[in-house]
Amino acid sequence: MRCYVADLAMVGFMTAEGDFDADLGWVLDPAMVMWCLTCVRRVSAEDLLAAAGATTVADARWDAGQAQSEAHHRGGAGVRVASSGDWSILIELQSLKGADGEWLQSISRGGEAVCFYHSGSGMERFSHAVDGVLVTEFEPAIPARRSGTEPDRLVADMRAAGIDPDGVTGDGDLGVAALRLVERVSGVRLTSDLVISGRWPAGVILRRRRG
User: Fold this and answer.
1) 91 and 200 Cβ atoms separated by less than 8 Å
2) Structure-derived torsion over alpha carbons of residues 138, 208, 75, 4, reported in degrees to the nearest 10
3) Tell me, what DSSP letter sits at residue 22?
4) For 16-75, how does the pLDDT look when each residue is reduced to its tens digit (9 = 90+)?
5) H-type helices in 12-169, by residue range?
6) Nearest one of 63, 82, 98 to 196, comparing CA atoms
7) Which end of the chain is more exposed for a tag (fewer CB within 10 A), N or C?
8) Are strands 76-84 and 124-130 parallel, antiparallel or unpaired?
9) Is the pTM of this model over 0.85?
10) Could you tell me which residues are beta bridge partners of residue 128?
């Protein structure tokens, strides 16, 4: 079973510190009903696919459209992985594996994991785990209600990303601001070239059969 790992530096996803605002408009597309992006440090892309419970497809390199088509054909959720330096990125457009707090903490052991997801019901959550511990977690709509062992760890980065850490409710494009925060933590650009059109190693998380 083979999984080819692409380096985002080859296609220009890494930028200088502070340049994290371009090309995040994909998050505002109404067609993006449910999605989850998880950046994990010190875990290979191949291992990340396996840890997510995906059945890998040999030599597959899918963009978002292909992932959805293959997922429908195979009866599951298509997921893709990319890598940048010592970070790997799990891209989910039909599933929410990264939203599982226990899984996120587990995958962060020995490294770090940061996740932002948007559920089909509209719920959004940012989570940051380090070495098996959830350190910061909050909903962008209510950023003052933070949990974790270090709820104030990212306060400066929240402000820089456009999130008021003292706000009762969030304002503006919360999804864009939360993605900026993920970018600031990981240094990985989460552009449409990565999330939508990028052709990355892929697999399918099969649906559990009932009965």
Assistant:
1) yes
2) 60
3) S
4) 344 444 578 788 777 788 999 999 999 999 999 999 999 887 888 999 999 988 888 888
5) 45-51, 64-74, 101-107, 155-161
6) 63
7) C
8) unpaired
9) yes
10) 114, 136
